[in-house]
Amino acid sequence: MKLHFDQAADALYLRLDDSAIIESEEVKPGVILDFNDHDQVVGIEILKVSHRVDAANLKQLNFEMA
Which residues, including other chains, have CB under 8 Å from residue 58's CB and lie 6 or more apart? Predict the structure, then answer.
C-alpha cells in the first residue's frame, strides 16, 4: 500500500496494490476510485485535500491498526 500527497495538485492518492487500473469513477465530487480488471478498488484519489483537512493536519499522518 502506498500513500502519496501532491501538494501542487492538492491531491491525496492511496494505492492499494500494483494491479493495472482498468477504469476510474468519480463516486462523489473530488473522490475518484480506480478499479482493476476484477472490478476491485485498487486506488483512491481525493482532490482539494486542503479544503477537506485542516492545514496543520496535512503535515502529519497517523496510522492506526485495530
Answer: 5, 49, 50
pLDDT in tens, 24-60: 999 999 999 999 999 999 999 999 998 988 877 777 7
Which residues touch 27 (CB under 8 Å, ≥6 apart)? 33
**Grid cell 492499494 — which residue?**
16
Can you give the pTM of this predicted structure? 0.86
State the distance between the two ends of the chain, measured CA to CA, in whole angstroms.
17
Domains of the chain, residue spans: 2-54
3-state secondary structure of 52: helix
Contact 45, 51 (CB under 8 A): no
